[in-house]
Design a protein that fits this description.
heterodimer, A: alpha/beta, Transcription Regulator spoIIAA, six-stranded mixed beta sheet, 6 strands, 33% strand, globular, B: alpha+beta, Heat Shock Protein 90, six-stranded antiparallel beta sheet, 5 helices
Chain lengths: 114, 185
């Protein structure tokens, strides 16, 4: 279920219900992002009480990647029992600017920027 | 025929330091070229920070923020240019960064498909006249997310966008678009 690429990695830790995204997401459009979205939605489909998306090592996210994360958040929105925690960092300033938009899609989303 | 959308500031009026990178239209495939978007955007962003020296924490934060913004904006502009560049026009894609005392401006030029111009200009009109917050939310929930790159620049980074459609200087039969993105410093 993990995705290992030279420029980015996506790992799912089932024991902590955490998806860790690392590197730079600069993929081209919906089709190229499909495998990553698949990892995220599959993790959500196990319906954990809390699903953590750890983005602290995600240096870059293009607009197609933002679109992909929106789809994930909208997907989780149907599972009222699952709380999403999004972890970010001040180290990469894009996270402060753009991650809060996902709270507008899902007001219960917990955003932790450290 | 030249057509301007938004407050387009011609490059020559925006004097000062500048840096330009050009891409030959046929040298490599879009798959291979895609990787250069990030390299070019990060190069421009890294280069820019040398003009904002300082050792204190505030200077470092300012540098990091500006670098991140330029990296995002330049990458999105290049991705759009690569996606929508009209191959039959054989027009090179270029990105230029101009520094002024109060702003950093990026200009990306590419050839456009004459049949796609009307739809593109309609999108631009919406970006320039409608409520950005509403449009941004609309596109975040939209399946294809088209226009989300521009909307993120406007909504998250407070960038001013403008466009110039003009015949190519090299071949007047070819229509080009130059997108300007201006970040206040």
């Amino acid at each position: 279920m993990d995705i290992i690429h030279n420029d980015y990695q996506v790992r799912y830790d089932a024991t902590t219900a955490t998806v860790i995204c690392q590197g730079s997401f600069r993929l081209r459009g919906t089709e190229e992002y499909a495998p990553i979205l698949q990892v995220l939605t599959a993790a959500a489909d196990t319906k954990p009480a809390t699903l953590t998306l750890d983005l602290r090592m995600l240096r870059f996210l293009n607009s197609s990647g933002i679109n992909m994360l929106s789809k994930f958040v909208l997907h989780v929105r149907q599972y009222h029992a699952t709380q999403i925690v999004m972890k970010g960092t001040h180290t990469f300033p894009w996270q402060e600017k753009s991650l809060k938009n996902f709270q507008r899609l899902l007001p219960g989303l917990q955003l932790e920027i450290e | 025929m030249t057509r301007i959308f938004g407050h387009f500031i011609a490059q020559k009026d925006d004097c000062g330091e500048h840096l330009e990178i050009g891409f030959s239209p046929t040298s490599i495939s879009i798959q291979q070229r895609w990787r250069t978007n990030g390299l070019s955007a990060d190069f421009l962003a890294d280069y820019l920070t040398t003009f904002f020296p300082g050792d204190d924490r505030a200077a470092a934060e300012r540098q990091a923020e500006l670098k991140s913004a330029v990296s995002y904006v330049a990458n999105e502009l290049l991705e759009n240019a690569m996606k929508f560049s009209y191959a039959p026009s054989q027009h090179a894609i270029s990105i230029a960064m101009y520094l002024a005392a109060d702003a950093v401006s990026l200009y990306v030029t590419n050839g456009v498909d004459p049949h796609a111009v009307a739809a593109f200009q309609q999108t631009i009109e919406r970006l320039l006249t409608e409520n950005i917050d509403t449009l941004h939310m609309e596109q975040l929930t939209h399946a294809d997310g088209s226009g989300l790159g521009y909307l993120t620049m406007l909504h998250d980074y407070g960038v001013a966008l403008a466009w110039k459609f003009a015949p190519s200087l090299q071949d007047p039969a070819v229509l080009t678009v130059t997108t300007m993105a201006r970040l206040s410093i």
